[in-house]
Amino acid sequence: MTNLLISYFAFNYFADMIMNNLRLTFFFIIFFFAVSFTLMDNSLEAHSFSFFKHDSLSLAGSTPVPDSLISDSILTAARDSLTPIYTKGFLSAVYHGTIIKKEKFQKDDYRYAGDLFKYSLPSFVYDLGWLGQPNEISFYGKGFQNVSYIIDGINFNSRITNSFDLYKIQSESIDSMEIIPLAKGFLYGSYNNPVAVSIYTNDTVSFTPHSRIRYFQAPDDEIYFDASFSAYLMSRINFSFEMTNSTISSRFDNGAYGGWRVSSKLRYMLSNKINFVAGYKYVKTETQLNGGAAAENKEEINFDNLLSSVFYPTSSNFSSRYQKYNQHNFYLKLLANVFEGVKTDISFYYLFDNTEFRQNERTSIKEIPVIINDNEFKTAGVSLKQDLSFSIFRLQFLSNFESAKFNAGFLYNGQTINNFSFGGSAMVNLLNGMLVPSFFTKYLKYDNSNSLGTGADVNFKITPTINLYGGYSAFERQNSLFINDINNNPMPPVQQNINTFEAGIKLYDNFIYGSASFFNTENDNDLFYTIDKTADTLLINEASGYFTKETNIGGINANINLRFWKLLVSANSTYYFNHDKEKLSLPEFTFFGGVYYID
Q1: What is the three-class DSSP state of 497?
Q2: Calpha distance 134→114 (Å, rounded)
Q3: Mean per-residue pLDDT over the chain, rounded
Q4: By CB atoms within 10 Å of each CB, which of 43, 205, 263, 569 scores lowest?
């Protein structure tokens, strides 16, 4: 009855707003129907199924254990019951790599998904100072066009910019995240990016209907609302739904933001060996871009939002620069454990992405040039992850094929680019798992150009709680779409050869856990984009050219977490060796830390 009242209240509260958007209306009807149907269908009580707390990053073949926050009663599944199959993570908790679980980041201070990486190694958030602004995130000193964001096995990077805005993710839907070791970053995703980040969304299957609402308000009319629901529709079909809305007004002129994010999953458990998961994600945002304070000199560091001006102000109640964004994603996933030691994960997906950039569209500010760009692409593809385990060997095969059709201002309208990749890794467990070397390779064919990469790494557990790591890779980089046609002048392809290396130590204990590592990335032809400042105005924000140079970015990172009694002390710090020589835009030294009380 409580779930029904909550759903009814939410339905009435948001009815007017949802009716303005047919897509949200459709999914909200499903949401409300699922609640009512589940509460009325008493026949589901006869179905023998019980549920344990799921960790999407658990080791293959591990035995599920009850969550420590659940009662002491042991939850076991009847022999004839259905057990869901979940997406398995790339990393293991005992070996090198960063795994951030919900139980950890729920203690952090975050307002959107990008904030979750502030406390992880080795990363930095270029925070533009206001909610909704397109912040950039750097890992291992590499940011824009260098990071692959993989969500539930699908690469969500823009096929135009090869980047991703983490405001598109529902932060409350995240179950866990992985930062892949630097040497293996190129192996995952549709491109050969040096860094890979894998994000897993909530995929809990519970016999008992579950609903949750999170709501908060803050100054400057900031509002955040998130509602989620999951339940069985039929004995073999589980449905989940989540809707998120966040808005904020302009504390600084022309800086407002608003966005809707909706996601849903429908899981069909054919058997204990085969599951199907169908899903849909929808994102709609509008962001005003003021370009920052228009300070006359670098000494003006105190910005007064009432008296100071911005580069792109509001004029006649219209924004002089803003951006609208729309995304639709449909996917169908097959999860299969047909044979012992054989795990299959196949995803068929379709991604529609449209970014509408407007500058001086409805204003009449002479100093600001008029720019109207619609950058749209449609991608259809299939992604495969196949795990094979036998004896002391573990093989993993990764493959992806997709076709992307572009309708963008700086590309030829209707242009289609196909890309195919195939690769994998071979891991050997020696000395009862104490010594684990692995070898990996990847072939990428992107827009009729071929790229190849290989590498190797090794994990050595000197004790059950201490692990040493070393990894190296060398790979070729695919061409960037930006340089294909900059300012309507075709540019020759740029071949990049990248070498990465990482060495570190990881401590994994109940009371103290953390890691320290040295990392280095060399690129013989790194790309840097330029803006033509010889025009009549400096308010030009479109790349008009590029240059390349050899770069060498190296640094060290240390992350430590100490837990005693009910206190958790956490610290994360990164230092870059050649900061001044490489003229890095990120700080030479960063430190984030905190003390948390955990009851």
Answers
A1: strand
A2: 10
A3: 80
A4: 43
pLDDT at 500: 97
Is residue 460 within 8 A of residue 467, CB to CB? The reply is yes
Residue 478 per-residue DSSP state? P
H, E, C per residue of 370-418: CEEEEEEEEEEEEEEEEEEEECCEEEEEEEEEEEEEEECCCCCCCCEEE
Res. 131: pLDDT tops 60:
yes
Tokens 């340089």: give the residue: 483
Cβ burial 335-371 (10 Å sphere, 16+ → b, else e): bbbeeeeebbbbbebebebbbbbbbbeebebeebeeb
Rounded CA separation 435/409 (Å)? 52
Overall size of the chain counted in residues? 599
Residue 22 confidence (pLDDT): 39
CB 524 within 8 A of CB 532: no
Q: How many alpha carbons lie under 13 Å from residue 588 in its C-beta half-sphere?
A: 7
What one-letter code names the amino acid at 204? Answer: T
- Bridge-partner residues for 589, per DSSP? 575
Asked whether residue 543 carries a pLDDT value surpassing 90, the answer given is no
Tell me whether strands 136-139 and 567-576 are parallel, antiparallel or unpaired: unpaired
Distance CA(305)–CA(201), nearest Å, equals 38
- pLDDT on residue 582: 74
Please report which residue ranges of 407-522 form alpha helices under DSSP H.
none
Which range is most confident: 13-22, 287-296, 349-358?
A: 349-358
pLDDT given for residue 315 in this prediction: 83
* Predicted pLDDT at 37: 39
Residue type, 7: S
3-state helix, strand, coil in the chain (%, to 5): 10, 50, 40
pTM for the whole thing? 0.83
The rounded distance, in Å, linking the Cα atoms of 102 and 176 is 6
Q: Residues 2-597: name the CATH superfamily.
A: TonB-dependent receptor, beta-barrel domain (2.40.170.20)
Pairing mode, strands 98-101 and 174-179: antiparallel
- Which candidate, 490, 10, 67, places its Cα nearest to that of 229? 10
**Domain range annotation of the chain:** 2-597
